Amino acid sequence: MAEKSSRTRAEQVIIPYLKSRGIRRIDHVFLSHQDTDHIGDLPALLKQLQIGLVYFPAGMEYNQHFQQKIWPYRYQTKWQPLLRDNQIAIKDFHCQVLAPRQPGSGTNEDSLVLRLSLNHKTWLFTGDLPTSGEDALVKDTVLKADYLKAGHHGSRTSSGAAFLAAVQPQKVIISAGRHNRYGHPHAETLARFKAANIAYKNTADVGMIIWSFDDKWWTFLHN
After folding, report:
1. Rounded distance, CA 39 to CA 55, Å?
2. Nearest partner of 166 among 185, 138, 188, 130, judged by Cα
3. Residue 207 contacts by C-beta under 8 Å, 6 or more apart in sequence?
4. Cβ contacts of residue 219 below 8 Å, gap of 6+?
5. H-helix or E-strand spanning residue 68
6. DSSP helix/strand/coil, 172
7. Omega cis (within 30) before 100
């Protein structure tokens, strides 16, 4: 029986890929919330790459799980908690912080929600925000975006019908592991995409998805 590798996913895939493209510095890293599948690779990135600034939902700096992960690297980069309407000075693109509205502990409900304008296209990232948080945004927030990264890996708990109607995305990207134990993306979520006539691609099916700044919006690299 083969031994399980002790290396993180970042060490196995992400960092070698970035270095193969000549990337050894990341100016901005955004952490959506505390879950290991969202921040677990951060120590490896901090150890092997130069990181300019790390953003996270306000209040998570007091979360012991988060503190333990970043403690050895606390002086190695800059850290910036974010709340709704905070301004972020980024040279190459405009970034709006839509959530959280108040400090929390870093749960799904506290997920960092970002709306980015990049190369004349708008992206929306919602972390693992559940439908209750999506509904709160629908009430008072401009959400329309060209591209949506599906909330919570395509779980039935996110990407509600009212939210999708407000966002009106042209395409959705689902980040889910192949044969993952949660069954992501859930059939109910895919049905909502189909009902709204929204095209989607799932990393569990096509592997790595790369977005390039040309007329070919995405290129697939299959594992």
Report:
1. 11
2. 138
3. 220, 221, 222, 223
4. 209, 210, 212
5. helix 64-70
6. strand
7. yes
* Spatial distance between the Cα atoms of 96 and 189, rounded to a whole number of angstroms: 26
Between the CA of residue 44 and those of 16, 53, 61, what are the distances in Å? 12, 15, 19
Written as one letter, the residue type at 108 is N
Q: Give CA–CA dist 113/69, Å, rounded.
A: 22
* Position 37, amino acid: D
Contact partners, residue 64, CB within 8 Å, separation at least 6: none
How far apart are the C-alpha atoms of 203 and 189, rounded to whole Å? Answer: 15
Beta carbons of 118 and 102 less than 8 angstroms apart? no
**Sequence letter at residue 81:** P
Give the integer Cα–Cα distance in Å for 41 and 36: 8
CA angle 217, 218, 223 (to 5 degrees): 180
Distance CA 123, CA 165 (A): 15
Query: pLDDT digit of tens for each residue in the chain (223 aa)?
Result: 444 556 788 899 899 999 999 999 999 999 999 999 999 999 999 999 999 999 999 999 999 999 999 999 999 999 999 999 998 888 878 999 999 999 999 999 999 999 999 888 899 999 999 999 999 999 999 999 999 999 999 999 999 999 999 999 999 999 999 999 999 999 999 999 999 999 999 999 988 888 776 555 544 444 4
Rounded to whole angstroms, the Cα distance separating 171 from 154 reads: 13
One-letter amino acid at 162 equals A
Residue 162 φ then ψ, to 5°:
-65, -40
Note the pTM of the prediction, 2 decimals. 0.91
